[in-house]
Amino acid sequence: MPAVISDLKPNREYKESGLAWLGRVPEHWEVRRLRQLIKGRLTYGANAAAEFTNRDWPRYIRITDFSADGSLRDETFRSLPPGIARDYLVDPGDILLARSGATVGKAFLVVTLTGTACHAGYLIRARPNPSLVSPEFLFAFTQSRSFSAWKDLTFNTATIQNIGADKYANLPVPLPPPDEQAAVVRFLGWASGRLERAIRSKRKVIVLLNEQKQAIIHRAVTRGLDPSVPLKPSGIPWLGDIPHHWKVERTKNVFRLRTQKSGLAHGKELLSIYTHIGVRPRKDLEQKGNKASTTDDYWVVQKGDLIVNKLLAWMGAVGSSDYEGVTSPAYDILMPIRPLCSDYYHHLFRTNLYLGLFKQRSRGIMDMRLRLYFDQLGQIPVPFPPVDEQFAIVAFYLEATADLTAAISRLEREIKLLREYRTRLVADVVTGKLDVREAATRLPEKTAPDITEDETELSIDPEATDEEAVA
C-alpha cells in the first residue's frame, strides 16, 4: 500500500459512542441521527403504474439505472409524466436508500442530472443539509461496515427484508467537523481510485484468460478433439461445420422440463445456479437477498439435470447439477431424455455463441427483464456427439484449461482481498478509527479519478435468483 495509507495512525482521543456496532469515536466528533442532518423529511418515491421513454419528461430513477461509478445509465432511461413526478423530484447531492428486496440497505448518491428526475417507490430520498453534513461523507458512511451492522440489526423480516423511512430517520451517523469531513472525502476518493485501478488491471487479465478458456472450450464442444476427422455442414449457419459423425438435435429432443414438485417437509437440499460457478447448495455460499421462508413445493432436481435461470440465462446462469435437491419455481429444470453427458451441455450453453442465442430468444422489454422460456430454448439446435465423445471432450477441456482456471482463481482472490481492504479502510476512516487529516494534506492537488470496473452494478446480482430480483 502507498505510504500515505500505511502510515495512518489512530492517534487521538476517543470516547464511547454508546452503540455496540459503532464502538468508539473521536472525542471531538458527534453522533447525530440522520433526521437531524437532512433538509425536510425522508420521502418515498413514486409508485408508477406505467413507465415511459419520453425524454421531455422527468427521468424515473430506479436502482437498475445506477452504474458502478454512481452515474446514471442512459440505456435504461424511463420517465414519468410531470404531473406524477413533481412530488418526487431529486437533486444532485441527494442520497437514495433502498428500502426492500434484494438491495435493501443499498445507498446511491445522485451526482449529476440532465434535466429533472424523480425516484422510484422502493427508494427513499434523503437530502443532506450541507451546512451540517457533506453528501459525499454521508454516502461514504453508508458504504461502511458500521452501516451494514446497523442495517442488519434494523431489518424487519416479517415478510421480506425492509427498512422504512422511520428506521432510516433514526440512523446514528458519526459526524466530524466540516473540515474533517472534507479531508475524509478527499482521502477516500484518492485511496479508492488507487485500489480500483489495481482491481481493474487484474480484471483485464481475467478477461484475457477467460477468452483463452472460451476459445479452447468453444472449439472442443463444436469441433471435437480430433482435427483430422472430416467435417460436414451442420445445416445451421451460425454453427458452421461439425465432425461428420455428429448429429444436430433441437434442445427439446435432448431435454424436457422436469416439473416434479417436492411436496411438504421434504428435507431436500436447496440449490441455486450461479453465473460463475454453476449449481451449488445455497447453504455453502454467502446468502444474498430475500431468503425463502419455505421450500415446500419447489422443483425437484436430480443429478445430471440442467438448471436454467430464465431471467439470467443470457448471462450464463445455466448449469448442470451434481446434487439432488430442490430449487426455486422461478427456474426451469431440464431433464435429459436420452443418454448424454450433462457437463458437455453445461459448457456448451455457457459459450458466447449460445449466450448470444439465449439473449435473442429471450422475451422482455429490457436486458434485466429478459426471460428465456423453454418453448424458445427447446427450439435451439445443439450438436450431439456420441456420448463417449461428450465425456472425452469434457475431460479434455477441464485438463487443458486447468492452469487458466487456477490463474483466474488466484486473481479473483487478490481482487477479493483488495475489496476487503477497501471496505475496512472506508469503515475505519468514516468512523474516525483512522485520522486522515494530515494524509489528505499530502495528496496531489488533483486526486486520481475513481476508475470503475467494466460491469455496471445492477439491482439484480448476476448470481441472484429470480425471487431475489427487485421489481
Describe this structure in words.
The chain is an alpha+beta fold and about 475 residues long. It folds into 2 domains: about 260 residues, DNA methylase specificity domains (Adenine-n6-DNA-methyltransferase TaqI, Chain A, domain 2, Alpha-Beta Complex); about 160 residues, Adenine-n6-DNA-methyltransferase TaqI, Chain A, domain 2 (Alpha-Beta Complex). Helices cover about 30% and strands about 15% of the residues. The strands form 9 sheets. A 4-stranded antiparallel β-sheet has the order 4-9-6-7, with helices on one face. Strands 14-21-18-19 form a 4-stranded antiparallel β-sheet. Helix 6 packs across helix 10. The longest helix is centred in the middle third of the chain and has 46 residues. It starts with a helix and ends in a 30-residue tail after the last helix. About 35% of the residues are buried. The C terminus is likely disordered.
